[in-house]
Write a structure and sequence with these properties.
alpha/beta; seven-stranded mixed β-sheet; five-stranded antiparallel β-sheet; about 30% strand; binds S-adenosylmethionine
Length: about 230
C-alpha cells in the first residue's frame, strides 16, 4: 500500500512510501499523465505524485541532504538558469503550482527543443527563455521581478552571471540556490579553488551565504550553495 505524507519542512513536497517500503521524495504533477524523465508515478486520493530522483536532480539531492533554505514553494516566482531538458524544472513547476511561475533559461538548441516538447507544452507555469544566461539584459522584456534564482549552468564561473541576473531580476531579500563544483569530498583536503572563488564573488556581490552542502552520494561533483540577497544602496 502506497502512503503519502507532506514533507516536514517544505510545502509542495511530499514523502511517498512505495509498495516495496522505500520512502522517496515526490511532487504532485502539474500535468498528470505526462512523464518527463521516466519517473515513477503513483495515484493516491485523485492526485498523481511524481517520484523525484535525487540522482537526476541536484535540488532533490539538496533536500535529502538537509538543506537549510529551500525557498521554492507554492506561488513562487523562479528564474531558473540552465534548464536543460527540464528534469528539475518540471518538479519546480509542480511545487509552485497554478499561482507560481518559472522562467526557464537554456541556450543549447537540442535540449531547449526537448524542454519545449516534454515540459513547456503541458505546463502553463513554465516560460522558456532561449537565451544565454550570461547576457541577462537580452531577456529583460520577458520577465518581471522574481523571488528566487536557481542556477545550474555547469560552468566554472557561475557566481558572476548569477549575480548579474540578481541585480536585474531578484527581489531585495530574495533567495538563490547555486549548484557549484564541489568542495573536496575528502574533508582533510582544502575546498576546490573554484568553490572558494565562487563563494567570494557571491559575498562581494551582496549575498549572505546561508548554507553550503555537498550532494554526495547523489552527485559526487557538486555542492549546493544557498544565500539571501540584499541590494547595495
Ligand atoms: N538544472 C538541470 C536539471 O537539474 O534538470 C540540469 C542543468 S545541466 C547541468 C546545465 C545546463 O546549462 C545545460 O543544459 C547547458 O546547456 C546549460 N547552460 C550552460 N551555460 C549556459 C548559459 N550561459 N546560458 C544558458 N544555459 C546554459
Amino acid at each position: 500500500m502506497v502512503a503519502i505524507e507532506p514533507h516536514e519542512r517544505f510545502p509542495g513536497i511530499y514523502w511517498v512510501t512505495l509498495e516495496d517500503g522505500t520512502r522517496r521524495l515526490a511532487t504532485i504533477s502539474f500535468a498528470p499523465g505526462i512523464k518527463v524523465y521516466g519517473e515513477i508515478t503513483v495515484n493516491v486520493g485523485g492526485k498523481e505524485y511524481r517520484v523525484w530522483n535525487p540522482y537526476r536532480s541536484k535540488l532533490a539531492a539538496s533536500i535529502l541532504k538537509g538543506v537549510k533554505l529551500m525557498p521554492i514553494k507554492p506561488g513562487s516566482k523562479v528564474l531558473y538558469l540552465g534548464a536543460s531538458t527540464g528534469t528539475t524544472v518540471s518538479h519546480v513547476s509542480d511545487i509552485i503550482g497554478e499561482q507560481g511561475i518559472v522562467y526557464a533559461v537554456e541556450f543549447a538548441p537540442r535540449v531547449a527543443r526537448e524542454l519545449i516538447e516534454k515540459v513547456v507544452k503541458y505546463r502553463s507555469n513554465v516560460i522558456p527563455i532561449y537565451q544565454d544566461a550570461t547576457q541577462p539584459h537580452n531577456y529583460s522584456a520577458l520577465l518581471d521581478e522574481v523571488d528566487i534564482i536557481y542556477c545550474d549552468i555547469a560552468q566554472p564561473q557561475q557566481a558572476k552571471p548569477l549575480a548579474d541576473n540578481a541585480d536585474l531580476y531578484l527581489a531585495d531579500g530574495g533567495s538563490i540556490m547555486l549548484a557549484i563544483k564541489a568542495m573536496s569530498i575528502d574533508v582533510t583536503r582544502e575546498p576546490s579553488e573554484t568553490y572558494k572563488r565562487e563563494m567570494k564573488v557571491l559575498e562581494q556581490r551582496g549575498f549572505n551565504i546561508i548554507d553550503a552542502i555537498h550532494l554526495e552520494p547523489y552527485d559526487k561533483d557538486h555542492a549546493m550553495i544557498t544565500a539571501k540577497y540584499s541590494r547595495k544602496s
